[in-house]
Amino acid sequence: MTALLENPNPQFKNTNSSMLEPHAEIKNEIWSHRSATASAQIQNPNFFDQIEQLKNKLFDGWDGEDGLAPTQTATDLAKQVIRYALYLHRNYFPSTKWVEPDLSPTSDGGVDLEWEIGNRYLLLNVSGKGEISCLIKNNQANLGTGSASFLYACIYIQWVLAGGL
Amino acid sequence: MRNPNNFSRHDYLYRRIPDTNLNLKDYSIKPSAFSYKEGESVSVFSPLVRTPRDVLQLCIDEQKEYSCSPNPKTRLKGENFLNKNGTTVEQLVEKGWRVAEIRPVLLAEKISRIGKIEFSGHQDLWAKTDDINDFKKFCADKATLLTKEECLSKVVPKEIFFRRNFCFFFVTLISLTKRILGTIISTVEKLGSQKK
């Protein structure tokens, strides 16, 4: 696990200009928490076990309809996002507390990762085809919604984690 | 527990919620419970025709049918479901499955249309926006999860009872009339050919 965190090897997919880009407000706040001086104490996240369990547990038709089991593409990408978000958190944002996302399957073979910390809310969807999309809310107000790049998804995670400060 | 006769069933729709789409700590509904594939709709059921228990029973009946299918893929799908979730509504509810109630009027800004009520009570709900995440979260926030007792209740509201029996009576009447008319016509034809 530690090796994975040290070497996240992110794949910067989906980086076209129509992607949902963080507001200046979000960017500024994220950078204000940035600190490379300390390394956060993170317990080994059990997200990786959870997502494996979910993938092994579910089968096509799990929802009683035509729901697809989580695809390899979706679970791999979700793991990469968390791995890189953890890397960023550990090395640059140690003042925030790492919180595991709430994980659940979607009918297209994708997975939803959900955080609600303080007034901040992030729903990050990795579709069965391996596309990332987000819904970001602050105080119940929509800050943004739409497809997001790998890197922006990781930045949003840092933003939502800062809601606990 | 709410008396099912005390509210208007025109105002609600039921949605089946799998255990994996519920937060089992506080029984809150996760947005993924309202996920749908691109270009497809969300399946809901009309309380005019079905009780929450019926909605779960329909799912089991469908899986039982699948498990007897000659198609190996469909058969496996049905068998997997029944092995994992059980073969009765009680077992399904014990596993964590529930039914949620949604009021279309609260979702009006996110829904483009609601399909016709099928004979089974099934209806399609079409999202207005292409943004699935926004739709899912909105629905999850507005939906109300029914309790274990409400999902298991065998009480059939009067309206549903009459409607169901009326449908049964109507279908039986039509098929009987068809048969009788068929017999009369064939008898008349036989007599006609004998006379000739």
Question: What does this protein structure show overall?
Answer:
The complex is a heterodimer of chains A (165) and B (196). Chain A is α+β, with helices and mostly antiparallel strands and 165 residues long. Chain A is built from 5 helices and 5 strands; from the N terminus they run ααααβββββα. In chain A, 36% of the residues lie in helices and 19% in strands. In chain A, β4 (132-138) and β5 form a beta hairpin. Mean pLDDT of chain A is 81; it is low at 1-17 and 36-42. Chain B is α+β, with helices and mostly antiparallel strands. Chain B has 2 domains: 4-155, no CATH class; 157-196. Helix content of chain B is 48%, strand content 15%. The relative contact order of chain B is 0.18. Classes of the chains: A alpha+beta (165), B alpha+beta (196). Chains A and B meet through β1, β4 and β5 of A and α1, α2 and α5 of B.
Strand content of chain B: 15-25%
Low-confidence stretches of chain A: 1-17, 36-42
> What is the distance, rounded to the nearest whole angstrom, between the alpha carbons of the first and last residues of chain A?
27 Å
| Strand order, largest beta sheet of chain B | 1-5-8
Give the number of DSSP strands of chain A.
5
The figure for the number of domains of chain B is 2
Summary tags:
heterodimer, A: 165 residues, alpha+beta, 5-stranded antiparallel beta sheet, 5 helices, 36% helix, globular, B: 196 residues, 3-stranded antiparallel beta sheet
How would you sum up this structure in a few lines?
Chain A is of the alpha+beta class. Chain A has five helices and five strands.
Topology of helices and strands:
The complex is a heterodimer of chains A (165) and B (196).
Chain A: H1 2-6, H2 24-33, H3 47-57, H4 72-92, E1 102-105, E2 111-117, E3 120-126, E4 132-138, E5 141-147, H5 150-161
Antiparallel strand pairs in A: 1-2, 2-3, 3-4, 4-5
Helix pairs in contact in A: 2-5, 3-4, 4-5
Chain B: E1 13-17, E2 22-23, E3 28-29, E4 42-45, H1 52-67, H2 72-85, H3 89-95, E5 98-102, H4 104-107, E6 111-114, E7 122-127, H5 132-142, E8 144-145, H6 148-152, H7 158-195
Antiparallel strand pairs in B: 1-5, 2-3, 4-7, 5-8, 6-7
